[in-house]
Amino acid sequence: MARIALLPQGSVSHEAALHLLGDHHQYHHFKLISEVFMAVVNKEADYAVIPIENTIEGSVNLHLDWIVHEVDLPFQAEWVYPSIQHLIGRDVEGGEDYSSINKVLSHPVAMAQCQQFLRKYLPHAIQEHVSSTSEAVRLVKVNSEENWAAIGTRLGAQTYDLNVLASEVMDHHNNYTRFILLGSQPIELAETMTHKTTILVTLPEDFPGALHQVLSAFAWRRINLSRIESRPTKRQLGNYYFYIDLQMALDSVLLPSAFAEIEALGCHVRILGTYPTYAYSTSQREEPHHSEV
């Protein structure tokens, strides 16, 4: 039984962890993402569940920067989970009269995903950002004298014994979040045919065409890049590293030779992990199953 650090109980991270890992692990919930990372660094937990990218909002730069600059924890798995948000409060389910609600609380990313609904049904309500969707639901629960509601998950509503006033209030219903599992040791998961390797490449200074040559090392070997993103190194203005996802496991003979070619150019290559990846089908949205892993 592994100890899993993640964001608060009832959050999308919690739903996503249950989906991939099941309910037979010890889940340790933290309010801040920094606490999630440090729980593994300090050996209070074995693994951390970290959201790194969202269909609508893009990369979660704060989390990527923690992975790169603050900790040294290998990627052990990646999976995709839908970000399904609901309006949660005390009233009975159903109906579209939300005139009594004067404040809506949620995480800023979740709030941004529901603006069309909020403009249509709650234009009068104050929008307040908090640290997580779960924290938003908790605040609605403990402030029973206030006419507040939260944008959050169905699991969050169940956790704090509140009602779902309106289901799936997102602007876009194809909104998914990519999660990674960080930890020092591999974890036993369901078999999958899909694997990735994630690397950081730092280019040498004053080397015209270096990025082109880096990409060429992968291109002529027919190694597919599913993602490439530049981020500041935080050492000097205008100095960047490149975060690259490769659709290939590290045990392929092609990757080590590609890395050697890149390093011969004077680039630095840091391997963040080679790991299984798990997609999410629309059929799972109706009947998610946790018993297979």
UniProtKB/TrEMBL annotation:
InterPro entries per UniProt: ACT-like_dom_sf (IPR045865), ACT_dom (IPR002912), Chor_mutase/pphenate_deHydtase (IPR008242), Preph_deHydtase (IPR001086), Preph_deHydtase_CS (IPR018528)
Pathway: Amino-acid biosynthesis; L-phenylalanine biosynthesis; phenylpyruvate from prephenate: step 1/1
Residue ranges annotated for the ACT domain, each copy included: 199-276
Protein name listed in UniProt: Prephenate dehydratase
Keyword Lyase assigned: yes
Catalytic reactions of this protein: prephenate + H(+) = 3-phenylpyruvate + CO2 + H2O
Domain Prephenate dehydratase: 2-184
Enzyme category, top tier: lyase
Sample GO molecular function, one term: prephenate dehydratase activity
Pfam families in alphabetical order: ACT, PDT
EC number(s) recorded for this UniProt protein: 4.2.1.51
This protein's UniProt keywords: Amino-acid biosynthesis, Aromatic amino acid biosynthesis, Lyase, Phenylalanine biosynthesis
Family matches, as PROSITE patterns: ACT, PREPHENATE_DEHYDR_1, PREPHENATE_DEHYDR_2, PREPHENATE_DEHYDR_3
